[in-house]
């Protein structure tokens, strides 16, 4: 058995989407104009890919043919590679194989090396290989930068052989000869061993952020985009079965922006129906799902910037996505944008299939007030639902949510730019997110009995800080004993209790900030009926009885730090890394409030992110582990992080601000996070496929 790992390595000049290139039509680097009527160049009918004896395969930019790379895969451990020289104008050096001894040889050739052959004037140039992909059934697929004539015309007429509609050109191929094991064990017998997947459609300009033009489901069906000949660049997505049947999955009337194939054979894609000249517009955009049985569900529409990621599920395809709320009829806008879960099997209605993954930024107040359906189910109704006698569970939860801080919300005008999900279903996001401020409970209170009033807040007797007259006055408060004496000749509390009975009058406080507001088990809190029917009196024997009180409407406000009045500006906004908390339906901020998160990668299930620290004025590369964000490189702007295939190491590339130097190499996954620079390969290695027993 072989262990197969494909590692994407993006260079400085190729950061972004390097895997798909534009098609030049008739006169491109591959076709060369061929045939006697077009200058006499021969067709590349015998292109051969040879993987025999390989432990690794490199996709290389043939214009950069010097340098070395340390690669896992040799029989005796890591080996140093030296790239062989090749014709810088040809793609013959764009695919190399590595033997167990570290020797690098070209893995692709275009046949006869003679300047003239069979009456032709010269050998054409082979386009560069851009992508190598491995199917689940371990077959190898190759994508070339441009299409080329790969077979002779059946009628012998070469006059239109280089016309894209002739059926003689091809750009995407499968390597014939069996699985990777078969190709490693046996050199190719035929002069040419590439099987064309589609000789009528070519990979034109493409903006999807996927690693390859090829995608596979678990049945090894291959999915690929192709532009229609003379169709103004309009793109179609096709599915090709292992037996060669081709079907159209996304048609040319859709300006497809991005698509993702699931293991089960479903497709998530974004696009636009307003497709003109090969490009869509912001209006009419949609996010759709095609099931393995080919039925379509429109998930969301009228948006241009959907961000989506498949969800791990044992019950079928699911996804998590960011965009406007698709379950409401109002026009899509930033105000309703949020992070949503999509389950095609959730039910017949859109609201059954699409549910919020978090509490949206525009709905923080509903979360605090427990008015969401899930909260009512869990805690019952409260003051915000018109219930003046909520349960203790509701009061406890309301107090907790109000007084807490640090919960993170998204949407409601805040953009999520990246979503990543681990194999266990943990979801990480980067975007503009909102961190909740600390709140405080207010309520209306009626109190009968001696108590302290400090800055408008009442404190009952027995309070450890202000619960006696002396403590209250020492703090600058007022000890309140409003009432009347049974002996009408006595007008003060002290005079009355020496010889008679003092009857306390109720004192009302509106919007009081008091610990009494969140109490649930205080025997001195009475219902309104009991409060007004229960006298509170003071006599010589009990001059300071325990006060009784009743609580009215509870509210929550942002905690004041300067004595100012109520403030409902609940959040501070940051550009950060956060994790979805599926229990509380909020986000947990993982990056610091002094940094702006930029990019997010998963290496295995380990999240790594780059950020700019505004306090230090430096770029940082960080990872999140053991519930903490750890800096592993500073003053370094990371472009890409990926697995290397070598235990304990990652591939990285980026810009070192200390030296103004671009570097590519490996980095230790654990402290001290030592970086080993690979020299001579800037802009050279595109993709590494590691094959080892």
Q: Could you provide a short overview of the structure?
A:
The protein has 693 residues and is mainly beta.
Number of DSSP helices?
8
Count the beta strands. 47
Low-pLDDT segments, ≥5 res: 1-41, 64-89, 113-120, 277-282, 679-686
Strand-residue fraction? 35-45%
Strand pairing plus helix content: what structural class? mainly beta
Roughly what percent helix?
under 10%
- Strand line-up across the major sheet: 1-47-3-6-7
Mean pLDDT: 78
Globally, the shape reads: elongated
Oligomer: single chain
Amino- and carboxy-terminal Cα gap: 6 Å
Q: Can you summarize the main beta sheet?
A: 5 strands, antiparallel
Radius of gyration: 35 Å
Provide an overview of this structure.
It is a single chain. By secondary structure, this protein is mainly beta. Among the domains are: 225-236 and 248-357, no CATH class; 402-437 and 570-692, no CATH class; 440-558, no CATH class. Helices cover 8% and strands 39% of the residues. The protein has eight helices and 47 strands. Strands 1-47-3-6-7 form a five-stranded antiparallel sheet, with no helix packed on it. Strands 25, 26, 27, 37 and 38 form a five-stranded antiparallel sheet that branches. It has a four-stranded antiparallel sheet with strand order 9-10-11-12, with no helix packed on it. The longest helix is centred in the middle third of the chain and has 12 residues, at 392-403. Mean pLDDT is 78; it is low at 1-41, 64-89, 113-120, 277-282 and 679-686.
